[in-house]
Structures are given as C-alpha cells and as structure tokens.
Amino acid sequence: MEKPERPDAAAVEEEAEDSAENKRQRKAEPGREIVWRNVALMSLLHLGAVYSLSLLPQAQPLTWLWAYFCFIITALGVTAGAHRLWSHRSYKAKLPLRMFLAAANSMAFQNDIYEWCRDHRVHHKYSESNADPHNATRGFFFSHIGWLFLRKHPDVAEKGKKLDVSDLLADPVVVFQRKYYKTSVLIMCFFMPTFIPWYFWGESLWNSYFLASILRYTVSLNVTWLVNSAAHMYGNRPYDKYISPRENRFVTFGAIGEGFHNYHHTFPFDYSASEFGLRLNPTTCFIDFMCWLGLASDRKRASEQMIEARKLRTGDGSA
C-alpha cells in the first residue's frame, strides 16, 4: 500500500503563517476588539447588584425610598438633561436648572455630557449603521451592553468629528462638568448616595453603598440601555415603518418616558419625545414644571397636523 506523502516542511510553515495572519486580521476587524477592562468592570458591577438584592430585607424602608429617589434624579440627568436638552436642544434651560441636570448626569455615570451628546447625535444621524455606537442590527446583546465591551467602530469617531458640537462647547456648564467629570462622578454617583442614609437615619454604610449606589446605578444603566436595544426591536411603528425604532411601553415605564422611540426618531426635536404629552412621561412632567417655575422655556413640539400627516404617509397603521 502506498504511503501518504508527507507534507513539505516549508509548506507547513507557510500554512501556519497564513493561519496566524488570518487570526490577526480577524482580531483587527473594526469594531471587534474586546475591551477586557470593561468586561471585567461590568461583570463585577452586575454581580454586586445581584448581591445587593439580598440586603433589601435588612435595610430600612427609608433607604429603599432614598435609592429610588436617586434613581429618578439619575434618570432625569439623562432624559431631561443629556438627551432632550443638550443632545436635541428641544427646550431651553436657565443656569440653575442646567447645573442641577449636569450634577444629575454625573450621578448617572454614563460618560460626560459632551461625549454622551456627541455619540447620541451620531446615533440619530447614522442609525443602524457602523457609525451608530450601539447599532441594533448587530443584535440585542450588542445594542444593550455589548457595544461597551468592544472598541468603537472607526466610523463612530469619523462621523462624530464631522458633526457640529459647538453649542456644547459654548455651554460653560458642559465644559465644567467635562473638566471635573471624574470628581463629580465620585461625589454624585457613589459618595452622596452612600453618605445620606448613613448620616441622617443611621443606615449602615454597607447597605447604603450597595443599595443606593451599586444597585441603583446598575438598574439605571440597564433601563437606559433598553432604549438602545428593546426599543429598537420590539413594538409598533405608527409614525415611520421604514426605521427600526419602536414604541415600547415597557421601556417607556422604566425609562420615565423615553420608550416612545418610533415617535422620537421621527420627530427628534420634540421636547416631549412623545405624541401624548404627559402620559407615561415623567420627564415631560418635570420639564413642564421647570417651565412653570421659570427655569425652562421654548419647548419645541410637533404639531398635530404634522404628526397625522406623517402617520398616513409612512406609519404602519397601528394606533
């Protein structure tokens, strides 16, 4: 029987080199490089949040209420602040309100206002493309949290540089928060939520830290991420059936009014981010209240005629 021919040593070496080169190319594919530091930190954070649940029975009810209050402040820093005010300029806010929203945004710890708004404007302009930081076409996990585990696709930075963000840099509140962001996060996201229950009603520092800081922070992150993931995949599209964002009531409830996402991507300038005004929209209630106090003004709104015309032209026919 004829023996199989042994492969030439040079051919084996060449094949090994080709294989190594292919691996290097796959690793270097844009937007695919894993950031292990983020993977480790987010894993620890979520493990801490799961552990926090076991502390609920032994914590004081006042601490539960405080953690929820911090969650609302955190959410407003994103929804009324970074999103509706600074990203979309859908209303105007006076200095005291901008200072409050900047502090609340630091409590949210989701990047400083400038970076958050720049990436969000890229998300709207190039939605569902490689330039979208949390491109929903790459799946639920990627658009929810996976985008934080990978290096940004080069298109995100390239397209982001072409956007006009001069309005952000012209706001001294945004510039100040960006300059002292790390310090403000330590104070607003971790120190203050932990200190208040311990100092004022004698809660243990351990319970205060895990419930008002770790659990609250983790929940607020995931609620925000659901706008990027679930609200781009599940729900109806009464305003524009040709885009991915959907109306999602579950997300609306958790994200204090941000789940009317088909409407928002159709009319991004609308301060209410919804056709229905105050309904299921605590953020809109907050902005309206600030206007009543004289701290906000110039709320932009899509007209009823504009909304109905758009429904008839591009909507999916759902209510």
From TrEMBL:
GO terms for molecular function: iron ion binding; stearoyl-CoA 9-desaturase activity. Belongs to the fatty acid desaturase type 1 family. The keyword Lipid biosynthesis applies. It holds the Pfam family FA_desaturase. It comes from Chiloscyllium punctatum (Brownbanded bambooshark). GO terms for biological process: unsaturated fatty acid biosynthetic process. The keyword Glycosyltransferase does not apply. Residues 64-268 form the Fatty acid desaturase domain. PROSITE patterns: FATTY_ACID_DESATUR_1. It is a multi-pass membrane protein. Keywords: Fatty acid biosynthesis, Fatty acid metabolism, Iron, Lipid biosynthesis, Lipid metabolism, Membrane, Metal-binding, Oxidoreductase, Transmembrane, Transmembrane helix. This is Fatty acid desaturase domain-containing protein. The chain crosses the membrane at residues 34-53, 65-86, 185-202, 208-227. GO terms for cellular component: endoplasmic reticulum membrane. It is found in: Membrane.
